[in-house]
Amino acid sequence: MLVDASASTRRHGALTRAKGVLAEVFDSAYRQRARLAVLQAGGREAQWLWQGRKASAELHHWLQELGAGGGTPLLDALQQAGDWLLRRQRVKPHERQRLLILTDGRLRDLPALAPLPCPTLLLDTERAPIRLGLARQLAQALQADYHHIDDLAPGASGRTWRTP
């Protein structure tokens, strides 16, 4: 899971909505005893918070403290996530992997990007009245499934990652 926590995600309640989705995902992962990896992209660099461990109450504590600020080290985070996924596939080849990216897609430049090594869903958190659509472009570049966070039915994000 890759979470964009840059300053732009504070606008129009985007971070609050993203936190609600994350809480549902964490609860679902806990019930399923699933392992998670959580990478936060905010400030100057991406930071790993959780790597391949079972979901626990610690994640909810982090979520309560999650703020947003600074730049968007999203490209660095995508590189780190891709590298980690490839290493994890070598160590645990039978593990089912999926990547959830929560971002508004606000990057200075969008370079050519390769798809990530597992099924990926980009959940667009941009909630401004006039939307730039940068997250959709990022999803296309990554060959990821795309959904807007406002299109999720309550309770649907943690179970299936699908819109109704």
Automatic annotation (TrEMBL):
Residue ranges occupied by any VWFA domain in the UniProt entry: 2-105
Entry protein name: Magnesium chelatase subunit ChlD-like protein
SUPFAM superfamilies: vWA-like
Taxonomy, superkingdom: Bacteria
InterPro entries in UniProt: Mg-chelatase_DI-like, VWF_A, vWFA_dom_sf
Pfam family, one: VWA_2
Signal peptide positions (record): none
Native species: Ectopseudomonas guguanensis
UniProt cross-references to PANTHER family, sorted A to Z: CHELATASE-RELATED, MG-PROTOPORPHYRIN IX CHELATASE
